[in-house]
Amino acid sequence: MKSLFKFFLNIIPRPLLIRLSYLVKPILSLLLKGSKFTDPIDGKSFRSFLPYGYSKQRSNVLSPSTLSLERHRLLWLYLKNETSFFSENLKVLHFAPEQCFLKRFRKLKHLDYTTTDLLSPIADVKADICNLPFEDNSYDIILCNHVLEHIPDDTKAMQELFRVMKPGAYGIFQIPQDLNRETTFEDNTITDKAKRTKIFGQYDHVRVYGRDYFDKLRSIGFKVEEVDYTAQLSDSKIDKYCLAKGEIIPVVFK
After folding, report:
1. Which of 68, 81, 218, 242: CA 20 to 30 A from 48?
2. pLDDT score, position 7
């Protein structure tokens, strides 16, 4: 199973993977139905989750029903338990909308909800994050998760995110991060896909972020909270929801 998933992830283009995933979700949910692990996003339980990873495969991380990963389930719990996202009237901008969130967020009538991406077939607005078509100081919340590691000029992207965020508003900018690495590593001379996957973790990533990621956000003008939300959850819940213990949620404010 792990080898098969790894093959498809590295061979099939992401937009096509998104479309195909809608077809296989019902089958996977039925085959893996059980009680050991639970996806907090939809409340469904399974005897196992699926493996995932472009390079090294992680076991029991991909939910069969929502196709959420550890970071998605952690973000859902944080938004639900620690913010007014599910109750307050808010103008939200969501980059590269994840399938596990898209329909659920669209159904929240109190949100003025816009999705954007340059390539995603499920986004509302096709736009370059480095040159956004939105007005200054427009959004109460910006969700931009696992996007910046794909962007060659992440400084310009961060500046655009800062520009379109309202004063006093906040955003969540998750990235794949190596907390053991002090400084971010990037090398644009590495162009071979296999080498990029081995070094950066995915063939279309351009860097590995270190602990200095938070300071870079601060240099743009954001106030940053490094939230370890798993520290507020019991070990039993971390195991039940298949979360990554110690993962940091970067919550930024303007």
Report:
1. 81
2. 46
- 218's tokens: 């601060």
Residue 149: other Cβ atoms inside 10 A: 22
Instruction: Summarize pLDDT for 43-55 with one digit per residue, the tens.
Output: 999 999 988 876 6
105 φ, ψ (degrees, to nearest 5): -70, -35
Q: In which residue are the tokens 């590691």 written? A: 149
**According to CATH, what is the number of the domain 71-253?**
3.40.50.150
User: Taking a C-beta distance cutoff of 8 angstroms, is the pair 140, 92 a contact?
Assistant: yes
Q: Quick one: 57 exposed, middle or buried, by C-beta within 10 A (0-12, 13-18, 19+)?
A: middle
Is 2:61 a contact under the CB 8 Å cutoff? no
Q: Which position has the token pair 């979360």?
A: 243
Q: From CA 149, how far away is CA 152, in angstroms rounded?
A: 8
Domain with CATH 3.40.50.150 in the chain: 71-253
